[in-house]
Write a structure and sequence with these properties.
CATH topology of the largest domain: Jelly Rolls
Number of helices: 3
Largest sheet: 7 strands, antiparallel
Helix content: under 10%
Bound molecules: fe (ii) ion
Distance between the termini: 42 Å
CATH architecture of the largest domain: Sandwich
Radius of gyration: 24 Å
Length: 416
């Protein structure tokens, strides 16, 4: 939903006759089917595609069971319900032998968003139409090509990849290892409105430009020999069979299309003193904000403390996916770590980080953060990947030693 694009052949006016003569001479002259991809009913952004065949004509349908993640779930322990800071180690997750459609491992979920990690090793052999939300991937490792009815989007490490809800697509995985973060936005994903001017153009003080987005490379009708489309709705999957290739678009125009955006294209803002994390806001989702922490100079007031201050962000759960570099406020996390700091429990920097940050002129941290307003529920898979010493890692060493001494004596124990 960035701006309007146009690709391939179009009639002069929507909803009028568009007769098409295939260049290969195989099908004869035909009246194309218009396919309107609309959002928010018919009130929001839309794209109109012109297709050789009816996108609504399926010849077979059946239930399809997505396999459970290849990871032992951790069920039923009391510590899972405590309001503690959590650290999930997606780096220790084994590579899946599956394609992206089947490799998702959900970690945290609410009615607004599902956050998953995945390590696919194979390309999708079916198309997916996700009715449950917009998909925003962050490619921590790997790359490949997103194939859609609107064209191909190549992607690589450090890219966000956006797939709008309901767009028929699949992933070709180029190589391994692959390690992706997925934010499935159940309401919507959009460019923050304050980044736009009155005609919808990205403002000159926005943190990125129109040119930073890699747009779909439209190839016209393509037949990959695939006839199956999986439709996901409320987590359930229906498998549809089409008589012809679903990649049958002759031309399209509109504002709903897939893209890739390199995280390092995000232009950070800095100040004399520490700015709140909203300054890293990159994409808005219904009920949350996706932020990009990228290398930058730090706060330059002579008495500045570049490390984030402890805070009680009482209306937000905070999730951070660590990609690269030393994170100013955190210790014990590395590339692939996912931290989850729930609302209700104040959080802040690890012991020593506050003082150690003084005098630092720049940071090389790279991370994706998500602040959401609805409480997230950790899944049993998240619990299985959890570093259960994380909450205690915020206790200074001398207090930790004292605490351990007290725990050695018979008293009430902790659960984590
Ligand atoms: Fe925070």
């Amino acid at each position: 939903m960035l701006d309007r694009m146009q690709a391939g052949e179009l009639p002069k006016k929507p909803h009028t006759q568009f007769w098409y003569d295939p260049a290969d001479g195989t099908g004869g002259r035909r009246l194309l089917r218009e396919h309107c991809l609309t959002r928010v009913g018919f009130e929001g952004p839309f794209t109109i595609a012109y297709r050789l065949f009816g996108p609504h004509v399926q010849t077979a349908w059946s239930a399809y069971e997505l396999p459970a993640p290849e990871l032992g779930a951790s069920e039923g322990d009391a510590g899972a319900d405590l309001c503690l800071r959590r650290h999930y180690q997606s780096q220790v997750l084994g590579a899946s032998s599956r394609s992206p459609i089947e490799a998702r491992v959900p970690l945290l979920t609410s009615s607004d968003v599902t956050i998953a990690v995945m390590k696919p090793t194979a390309s999708d052999t079916r198309y997916l139409e996700n009715g449950d939300g917009d998909d925003l991937y962050y490619i921590h490792e790997g790359g490949g090509t997103l194939r859609t009815i609107l064209g191909d989007v190549a992607f690589g490490p450090g890219d966000y990849v956006f797939v709008p809800r309901g767009l028929v697509h699949r992933f070709d995985v180029a190589a391994i290892p692959q390690h992706w973060l997925l934010i499935e936005a159940h309401r919507d994903l959009h460019i923050p409105r304050q980044f736009r001017n009155e005609v919808g153009q990205l403002r000159m003080d926005a943190p990125y430009t129109h040119r930073d987005f890699r747009r779909p490379d439209f190839r016209g009708p393509v037949d990959e020999g695939i006839r199956e489309v999986l439709v996901k709705r409320e987590g359930k999957v229906t498998r549809f069979t089409y008589p012809e290739s679903p990649l049958d678009v002759v031309g399209w125009d509109g504002s709903v299309w897939p893209w890739a955006f390199p995280i390092l294209a995000f232009q950070p803002k800095v100040s004399s003193v520490h700015l709140p994390p909203t300054i890293h806001g990159t994409f808005a989702i219904g009920g949350g904000l996706v932020c990009s922490f990228v290398p930058r100079v730090t706060d330059f007031h002579p008495d500045a403390i570049p490390c984030p201050y402890p805070h009680a962000s009482v209306h937000c759960d905070e999730v951070i996916f660590y990609c690269k570099g030393n994170f100013t406020s955190r210790k014990g996390v590395g590339p692939g770590s996912v931290s989850f700091h729930p609302m209700g429990t104040s959080h802040g920097p690890h012991p020593g980080s506050y003082e150690a940050s003084i005098g630092h002129a720049r940071t090389d941290e790279l991370a994706v953060m998500l602040d959401v307003f609805l409480p997230l529920r950790p899944t049993a898979y998240a619990r299985a990947l959890e570093d259960r010493n994380y909450h205690a890692s915020f206790v200074p060493a001398e207090l930790l030693a004292k605490r351990e001494g007290e725990r050695a004596s018979p008293s009430e124990g902790d659960e984590s």
